[in-house]
């Protein structure tokens, strides 16, 4: 068997970039077709293809790292850079929505009544469910750190318990936020207040769901002995993403829920 | 008497252990053997026949999807007859 004289990972040819690109094509065209002709077939096909691509691509990465040993220290370093750069790009994504919020709220137009919150908007009490949500996410930040230390110390059962608790807290946040959305006295169509509120908190909620899913995959992998005490980058990436989601919420809470009320 | 008590205690412990929790076996060494086998298979097919099935289904959807997209886009490019 030919052996490489370097520590880097020359990947096997893979079909997933192609299927992923086609999924993007189907989802975008499908979105346009849905808007004009009211059929969701194309978009749904794209979504299914996206899910299949994600499952198989990430399954292959786990095979390459955990089963084939390709994730040497320099390769892991590259993966770390990659995750950090991705999270940075997400920070800029949210920055845009915060920009929109501050643009409208720092100088409220006469159409809004010249005030923020705009005339006629009943804001949510920041010291009720939003405060509970803040506590829930902060607690989940503690439990995910506990899980990390458990993994590093080789404490298998504790790692599973703390990771499970983190995921449950994530689900609790999502459930509370869904209830808040249902009970809110304003909608996304209620002027710029409604738009900035629901788009910013909505994208945040989506990221909570993504983060919880990532952590759930890590829980399955931890249960299947994939992580060792000094090599568990998949978990670290999930934990970084989870802390990012927590920090975005803190900014949302202080800006939109508290200052904006 | 103590020997019987010990035996009962041991039996009780053993049955509680096996019924209260399924033990997850460490299958990583097996997986490592399968995926490090020198059979020239690319990683996305190296797991066996279920890999090939899933790959074929995904590729079929990909090809069909491109075709369907082109059809819908061409259809949308022409004026629609309104009744």
The value of Rg of chain B in angstroms is 29 Å
| Measured distance between first and last alpha carbons of chain A | 66 Å
* Class by SSE composition of chain B: mainly alpha
- The CATH class of the largest domain in chain A: Mainly Alpha
Q: Estimate the strand proportion of chain B.
A: under 5%
Q: Return the average pLDDT of chain B rounded to an integer.
A: 83
Described by strand count, sense and barrel closure, the largest sheet of chain A is: none
List the secondary-structure elements of chain A in sequence, H or E: HHHHHHH
| Main beta-sheet annotation of chain B | none
The separation of the N and C termini of chain B measures: 96 Å
Total beta strand runs of chain B = 0
Record field, number of beta strands of chain A: 0
Tell me the structural class of chain A: mainly alpha
Helix count of chain A?
A: 7
Approximately how much helix is present in the residues of chain A?
over 70%
Number of contiguous helices of chain B:
3
Share in helix of chain B: 55-70%
């Amino acid at each position: 068997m030919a052996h490489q004289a370097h520590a880097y990972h020359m990947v096997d040819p893979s079909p997933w970039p192609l299927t992923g690109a086609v999924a993007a094509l189907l989802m975008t065209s499908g979105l346009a077709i849905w808007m004009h002709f009211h059929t969701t077939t194309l978009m749904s096909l794209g979504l299914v293809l996206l899910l299949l691509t994600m499952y198989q691509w990430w399954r292959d990465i786990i095979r390459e790292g955990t089963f084939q040993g390709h994730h040497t220290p320099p390769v892991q370093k590259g993966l770390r850079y990659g995750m950090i750069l991705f999270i940075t790009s997400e920070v800029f994504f949210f920055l845009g929505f915060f920009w929109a919020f501050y643009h409208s709220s720092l100088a409220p137009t006469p159409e809004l009544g010249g005030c923020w919150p705009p005339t006629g908007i009943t804001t949510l009490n920041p010291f009720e469910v939003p405060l509970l949500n803040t506590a829930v996410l902060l607690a989940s930040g503690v439990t995910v750190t506990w899980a990390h230390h458990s993994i590093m110390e080789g404490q298998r059962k504790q790692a599973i318990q703390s990771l499970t608790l983190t995921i449950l807290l994530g689900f609790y946040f999502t459930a509370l936020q869904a209830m808040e959305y249902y009970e809110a006295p304003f909608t996304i169509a209620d002027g710029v207040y409604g738009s900035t509120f629901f788009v910013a908190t909505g994208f945040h909620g989506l990221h909570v769901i993504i983060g919880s899913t990532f952590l759930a995959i890590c829980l399955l992998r931890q249960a299947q002995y994939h992580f060792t005490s000094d090599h568990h980058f998949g978990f670290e990436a999930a934990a970084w993403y989870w802390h990012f989601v927590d920090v975005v919420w803190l900014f949302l809470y202080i800006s939109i829920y508290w200052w904006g009320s | 008497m103590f020997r019987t008590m010990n035996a009962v205690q041991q039996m009780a412990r053993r049955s509680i252990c096996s019924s209260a929790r399924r033990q997850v076996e460490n299958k990583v060494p097996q997986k490592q053997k399968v995926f490090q086998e020198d059979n020239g298979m690319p990683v996305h097919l190296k797991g066996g026949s279920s890999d090939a099935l899933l790959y074929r289904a995904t590729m079929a959807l990909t090809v069909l999807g491109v075709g369907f997209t082109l059809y819908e886009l061409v259809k949308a490019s022409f004026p629609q007859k309104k009744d």
